[in-house]
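Entry for the shared binder. Reason: the reviewer on the internal report wants the predicted structure included alongside the sequence.
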Amino acid sequence: MKTVVIYHSKFGNTQLVAEAMAGVLQAAGPSRALSADRLTIADLQDVNLVVLGSPTHKMNLPVALRPLLDGLPKRCLRGKQVAAFDTSYKMNWLLARFTAAPRLLKKMRKLGGKQAVRPETFFVVGREGPLFDGELERAQAWAAALIPRPAKELIYHGAQ
């Protein structure tokens, strides 16, 4: 399985999460973390899984990320598994649904991607971070859930 974990990061927290995920996904095949501002359409070719993450800004996608997503060619994620995550400060239960990840996933599905897992939020202290203790480990566990079952068995039990 070949994976690209694309991230937009303002304070470095989302980048840390993306790099932790890419490290876990390496166990199933080539995987790399890539800053969204360096993304080209060629980075999306020949990958099986595209993971996209960003911070939540003002209960929405960061303004800087929107043109990039809107500029991607239609159906460029066709036939690919997709997953989305965000980083955010902890909000009350009423506002917690207004994070970036569901919006990222919606845009990825419009580009033809097939949802692999539910979007996830990883929490930062305050508005700028750092990440709460345990969030990188939680991100790694979330990434491990993206690995197809046969590959997981090979990773954990070895080839027989």
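Summary line for the report: The two ends are 20 Å apart (CA to CA).
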